[in-house]
Design goal:
With 328 residues, the chain is mainly α. The chain has helices at 3-24, 29-37, 41-66, 75-91, 96-104, 106-109, 113-142, 155-169, 171-188, 190-211, 215-239, 250-260, 272-283, 288-316, 323-326. One of its GO terms (cellular component) is plasma membrane.
Length: 328
């Protein structure tokens, strides 16, 4: 392991421990146990159904991207590899699941590594768009802002989402200024600038590819349905815990907890996700112990089913690196 990767790993572990300490320092384990004991299994079951509906939408979205290169692909071809990559990200450091999806299943899917990589980039933009939209919507509906958490109000995520939406629908409008910025960076720092310019060219080409015809509106629609279903996971988890006074806060916890995963942490985002998810719930008046129990319950609902499903698929279908990976 390189020194850089070791530093990132230690930083992630340190931040995870720090945020876990923040989570548990002000709650009683007895209160936490009481909140869990009262959980309604019916609502937990509904949350699990919503979880799998959300991933079904994500699989359909990825299939729509891949069918441009391999029209013979079906939903069942893409389901296993996508869940396997999520499972790998949940248990391995450095987002190893992204490498699994980029190189591990290309022969099986009949696609090139470049296609798999650009779909990952498009997914990141689509997911960020949805998280920002849900954040802005939640802040507007609850009449609050995140000044105490992140220093922004509802207008900031909505404006950022509008910018991303414009980029997704009309990437050519952003091509000239983006490439001009890359050329300016190249003059200042030739090495990094050339790499950034290459990445910008690749990203713009990818977005132009997906924005042709009706593909991008369909990708946005599937992304919205996926995140709506995930929001239902957060909401139903709140309904499952009677100790929560405001279970609708799950619609705020969804984007806040998701954005917290951008902070360096351990695989599975232990600590960072839990702290900010609980904070979002307490901001809306929920008791601290119940909010903590809620954060842990949501984390389990999001982590365990995906890890089990993807892990089983990996065991039964070991990955075979593509030629591109073997030459890296």
């Amino acid at each position: 392991m390189s020194a850089g990767k070791l530093f990132k790993l230690m930083l992630g572990v340190g931040l995870a421990v720090f945020f876990l300490w923040l989570v548990v320092r002000q709650i009683s384990l007895a209160d936490l146990k009481t909140a869990f004991a009262a959980a309604d299994p019916v609502w937990i079951g509904v949350a699990l159904v919503a979880f799998f509906v959300g991933y079904a939408c994500r699989i359909e979205r990825w299939l729509l991207m891949l069918q441009r290169d391999n029209p013979s692909l079906g939903w069942h071809h893409c389901a296993g590899p996508l869940m396997a990559s999520v499972a790998a990200n949940n248990v391995l450091p450095f987002r190893a699941g992204d490498l699994v999806r980029a190189f591990g299943f290309n022969r099986r899917l009949g696609i090139g590594a470049s296609t798999a990589i650009v779909t990952l980039f498009a997914e990141r933009l689509l997911d960020l768009l949805m998280v920002l939209l849900f954040l802005g919507g939640a802040l507007a509906c609850f009449g609050t802002d995140l000044t105490r958490l992140a220093g922004v109000g509802s207008a900031v995520p909505i404006a950022a989402a509008a910018g991303i939406l414009g980029l997704l629908l009309s990437p050519r409008l952003f091509a000239a200024p983006a490439r001009a910025l890359a050329r300016a960076l190249t003059r200042v720092a030739p090495g990094p600038g050339q790499k950034i310019q290459a990445e910008i060219d690749k990203a713009l080409t990818t977005l132009e590819h997906f924005s042709a015809g009706h593909t991008m509106p369909r990708l946005i629609a599937w992304s919205f349905l996926a995140w709506l279903a995930e929001g239902c996971v957060f909401w139903c988890a709140g309904l499952a815990l009677p100790a929560l006074s405001a279970p609708l806060g799950g619609w705020l916890a969804l984007p806040v907890g998701t954005l917290a995963t951008l902070i360096p942490s351990t695989p599975g985002y232990i600590g960072t996700f839990d702290y900010f998810t609980a904070r979002a719930m307490t901001e809306l008046g929920n008791p601290a112990a119940a909010a903590t129990a809620y954060a842990l319950l949501v984390h389990i609902l999001l982590w365990l089913p995906a890890t089990l499903a993807g892990g089983i698929y990996l065991i039964l279908n070991p990955t075979r690196p593509s030629p591109e990976a073997e030459t890296c």
